[in-house]
Design the sequence.
């Protein structure tokens, strides 16, 4: 069934004349009106019919020939080039727009890890760590309750001199977002107040500390004495052990646990041959009882670089490495910071 444009127009005019003549019954006039409405609205697909009476598919549902301009999506499938849906469409502003802070709760189960939980709730791990004030993700307990906020961000405790504009600049956000999330009605913030900074992230060092991924192990071996109080192997008196002892064969390579600069390479009656390396963020590491020192004071070392060999010099009962970590001049448990 095929119609030419002139034929369609002639037919339409004939129908209109017949309708206006008043010589047709009411039901015929109604039928004519319906035909005209369908025709004018474009619902009768005259041009979509083939000579055989089969509907044509114009590159859409029902088949048809694909467009000539195709591009591959990298997975063996083709997609129309320039298709805005395939190239990416901005998400609705509501999805990413800062909003009033709300939270739900979740009870930790066996096998839960902070990274997996963050993905489960559509957040980054910085958010869960900061919002719940987690100091060490390895110490999370089964049954412990975490608060799950409805958006990404971290907590900031207002210090003396802090301003909204300053915080916005520091965390690369804007003042209005901070106001909205924290329901602030003015630009005044008080010292000691905790603010949720939408979209902010923890700095890399803090995140590594909390996840216990800051240092590599200095040697391959086994821990023979842990950090904390113990009975002295020499006097039997209970005393504080400021590092960990890692047993290994004499001559085993000792590696720098993080990049930094050697500030001490020498001898101590307690540690024998020892090395101290200064790192960023206030960290220093000490390596004691070496049989041989392989670096010099002032030398820069990279993570994993050999700085000495395991020995039993100084106050020692057998070959091992004494490893101490200082943070701003105070010892901390190395195991909490080691991968």
Sequence:
């Amino acid at each position: 069934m095929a119609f030419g444009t002139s034929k369609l127009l002639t037919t339409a005019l004939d129908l209109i004349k017949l309708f206006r003549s008043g010589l047709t019954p009411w039901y015929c006039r109604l039928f004519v009106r319906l035909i005209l409405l369908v025709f004018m609205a474009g619902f009768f697909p005259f041009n979509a019919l083939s000579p055989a009476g089969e509907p044509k598919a114009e590159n859409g549902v029902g088949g048809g020939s694909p467009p000539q301009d195709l591009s591959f999506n990298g997975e063996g499938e083709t997609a129309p080039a320039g298709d805005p849906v395939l190239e990416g469409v901005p998400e609705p502003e509501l999805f990413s727009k800062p909003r009033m802070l709300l939270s739900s709760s979740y009870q930790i189960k066996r096998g839960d890890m902070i990274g997996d939980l963050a993905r489960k709730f559509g957040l980054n791990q910085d958010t869960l760590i900061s919002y719940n004030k987690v100091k060490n993700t390895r110490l999370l307990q089964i049954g412990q309750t975490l608060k799950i906020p409805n958006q990404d961000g971290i907590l900031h405790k207002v210090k003396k001199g802090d301003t909204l504009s300053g915080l916005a600049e520091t965390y690369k956000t804007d003042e209005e977002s901070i106001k909205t999330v924290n329901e602030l009605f003015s630009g005044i913030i008080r010292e000691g107040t905790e603010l949720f900074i939408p979209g902010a992230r923890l700095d890399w060092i803090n995140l590594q500390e909390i996840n216990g991924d800051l240092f590599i192990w200095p040697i391959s071996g086994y821990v023979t004495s842990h950090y904390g109080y113990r009975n002295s192997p020499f006097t039997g008196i209970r005393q504080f052990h400021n590092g960990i002892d890692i047993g290994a064969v004499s001559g085993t390579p000792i590696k720098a646990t993080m990049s930094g600069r050697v500030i001490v390479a020498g001898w101590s009656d307690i540690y024998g041959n020892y090395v101290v390396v200064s790192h960023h963020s206030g960290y220093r590491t000490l390596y004691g009882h070496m049989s041989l020192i392989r670096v010099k004071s002032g030398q820069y070392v990279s993570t994993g670089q050999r700085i000495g060999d395991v020995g039993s010099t100084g106050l020692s009962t057998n070959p091992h490495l004494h490893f101490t970590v200082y943070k701003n001049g105070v010892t901390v448990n190395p195991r909490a910071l080691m991968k």
User: Anything to note?
Assistant: The chain has three domains: 5-48, 103-211, 222-337. Confidence is low (pLDDT under 50) at residues 43-86.
